[in-house]
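Entry type: protein chain
Record version: 2
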Amino acid sequence: MKNKDDKFKKVISHAKEYGYIFQSSEIYEGLSAVYDYGQNGAELKKNIRDYWWKAMVQMHENIVGIDAAIFMHPTTWKASGHVDAFNDPLIDNKDSKKRYRADVLIEDFAEKLNLKAKKEITKAAKRFGDAFNEEEFITTNPRVIRYLSKRDEVLKRMGESLENEDLSDVKALIEELEIACPVSGSKNWTDVKQFNLMFGTKLGATAESAMDLFLRPETAQGIFVNFANVQKTGRMKIPFGIAQTGKAFRNEIVARQFIFRMREFEQMEMQFFVRPGDELKWYEYWKEKRLNWHLSLGINKENYRFHDHEKMAHYANAAADIEFNFPFGFKELEGIHSRTDFDLKAHEEYSGKKLQFFDHELNKSYVPYVIETSIGLDRMFLAIFSSALQNETLEDGSERVVLKLPAVLAPTKATVLPLVKKDGLPEIAREIINDLKYDFNVSYDEKDAIGRRYRRQDAVGTPFCITVDHQTKEDDTVTIRYRDTMAQERIAIKDLRNIIYKEVSVGDWLKKINN
């Protein structure tokens, strides 16, 4: 656990040191669970958003994108159920005075059981070598069976208790499992209570005439209320999808783990409208499609896993998370949900407007069912950043810190470095930048020895360093250095654009999704 904590601390400090993420309002002692993206963070975040948008909208003829407003009519949130049911089960420790989400405490306990089982499996694999049969070991080893069955039993009971709104049993489960406060070790808990997560605000010129509004807690409802507008103006036929990225706001009492859980965050969501009865087929389709999108970025497949929901929203008939192995363990990165026709029917009821589709093939109208894919952009940022940050020991025994971001997402694609700050080399470097900047985000760096500049760009995550030296003046060639391998080669200046493009082309990266 200590290694994971150390890794996470390095992620947070590296993000600040290299201009990726800062504490919001830091000069005023900061604002809890609110963060600002720095010069490199803003670029990385934009590149992730663009990569998602192109994969979701540009690559699908039957998916279009919108940008709905953050403010919505307050009845929207009554219809969606957020006014009455958008709650987290919270519990306070009487001794430490710390507040926690009860479900997260239980899920963390279950994950520890899972890790114990994995430890037994790893030990056995080392012991038996090539003869090891993992599947047989999991189903026959008493310890592994005990750990995994206990994990499943705990999660199932929690899911049923939350589904039935039996908060007293949630507390009873925490006490039976002897879960202690992570800060104080105390097991002296209050009752579990529900807390609504929406931020309230006002719209109007005077206090007397102001309307009570909410900052949207999710972007999905902006899609649902625009279903008819998009379908008619876009002449969309079922099945079709509507995608959106944008800010959402939740008054998280237990906001923690850096940008993993924040009060102001960004979502990337797509609602896919299908015929009733076809939803589970499309649910499986989007599970596979979304996992392939993640894997197209080249991050180790072992960092991802599916988690099928024990506890589902009352309107869903299937739900799964794509979980990622963050520095603090496997946690939800993206959700794929079969929401049935709950949302459109609810908005029909509250608005009095028809939100149906006339299917010419079936010669009838119906309220479509919906498959949702929803991913947190900030969580995706953290997943990519934390997996990319590596410490490497080189052949000469020295170490380097390198941020191996997927080249397609890297904030700066290339840095041009004059070997010395004289003899016309800076001028040539500037000419190269002026030529490349129309196609790529490039930078210039002339401070310090060339080796130190290479190390600095490794830590920033820049895929290419282009060095201009005295030979450049003779034959119009430069040295290009590759971040991940540190390999260097001599190439003509005129070939730079093509070499960089091959490594950072969004199209080439996206093609991996269908391979």
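Comment: The chain has three domains: 60-81+197-393, 87-194, 412-514.
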